[in-house]
């Protein structure tokens, strides 16, 4: 006969706690314009993508970069401002691993031997002139916010980057606001000596709604904004009448 301590629950056997298993998220389904752009890039074409904000242009770049890095090759991602470069550096570091992503701006140089380098367009332009050997393993350059090509003060950096990028480098241009994308593609084909595929998407995935913000921080629709403006204009007119009346009374007093 054996004896032993009884369990607190009266000897009943407890089942092990089971963790709730969440269903795996369904695979991301690409839109037709994204599939077309990725296929053209992987086939070795230069590509310009014009699509509204929020439609998923960056996803095209991410799919391309994943393929490039998987093959042990290099790519450059350019943006027009340092703040955006810093953001992309963080995003791509989380996506591909920090050791595979570098950042080069006028202020910072981090992991500059990485396979994927994020930099401002001016830095890339300077590399094309002064440091082209550093781009020997670079297969693609991605120009984010391609519409800066039309900027009167900074557009030359984009022009010179496209013209003087080493011949082996393919170009992916992304923009939401290029009305003459086909004209730009024709020019690029002339200066690069090879065709450029244009892929356009006109459907806005994220609806664009216009609203007004009052000086007090209230979000207004059009009718509310007009009422706010009229009220403030009436106050200004009332103050002006009081001012004019005061000045007139002061003038009579002076006489």
Structure description:
Helix 5 links the parallel strand 6 and strand 7. Helix content is 41%, strand content 17%. Helix 1 runs parallel beside helix 2. An eight-stranded mixed β-sheet has the order 4-3-5-2-6-7-1-8, sandwiched between helices. The protein has a two-stranded antiparallel ribbon with strand order 9-10. The chain has seven helices and ten strands. The N and C termini lie far apart (126 Å). The protein is of the alpha/beta class and 255 residues long. 31% of the residues are buried.
Topology (SSEs and partners):
Layout: H1 32-42, E1 46-50, H2 57-70, E2 74-79, H3 82-96, E3 101-104, E4 109-110, E5 116-120, H4 121-130, E6 138-143, H5 155-164, E7 170-175, H6 181-192, E8 196-200, E9 212-213, E10 219-220, H7 222-254
Parallel strand pairs: 1-7, 1-8, 2-5, 2-6, 3-5, 6-7
Antiparallel strand pairs: 3-4, 9-10
């Amino acid at each position: 006969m054996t004896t032993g301590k009884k369990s607190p629950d009266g000897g009943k056997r407890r089942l092990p706690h089971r963790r709730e298993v969440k269903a795996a998220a369904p695979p991301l389904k690409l839109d037709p314009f994204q599939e077309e752009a990725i296929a053209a890039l992987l086939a070795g074409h230069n590509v310009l993508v014009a699509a509204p904000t929020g439609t998923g242009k960056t996803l095209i770049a991410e799919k391309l970069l994943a393929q490039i890095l998987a093959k042990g090759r290099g790519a450059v991602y350019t943006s027009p401002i340092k703040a955006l470069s810093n953001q992309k550096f963080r995003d791509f570091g989380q996506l591909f691993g920090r050791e595979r992503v570098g950042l080069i701006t006028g202020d910072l140089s981090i992991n500059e031997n990485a396979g994927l380098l994020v930099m401002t367009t001016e830095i890339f332009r300077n590399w094309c002139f002064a440091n082209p050997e550093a781009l020997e393993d670079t297969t693609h350059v991605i120009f984010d916010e391609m519409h800066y090509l039309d900027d009167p003060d900074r557009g030359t950096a984009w022009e010179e980057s496209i013209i003087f990028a080493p011949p082996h480098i393919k170009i992916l241009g992304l923009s939401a606001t290029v009305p003459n994308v086909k004209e730009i593609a024709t020019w690029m084909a002339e200066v690069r000596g090879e065709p450029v595929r244009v892929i356009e998407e006109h459907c806005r995935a994220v609806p664009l709604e216009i609203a007004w913000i009052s000086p007090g921080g209230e979000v207004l629709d059009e009718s509310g904004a007009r009422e706010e403006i009229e009220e403030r204009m009436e106050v200004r007119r009332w103050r002006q009448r009081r001012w004019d009346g005061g000045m007139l009374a002061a003038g009579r007093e002076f006489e």
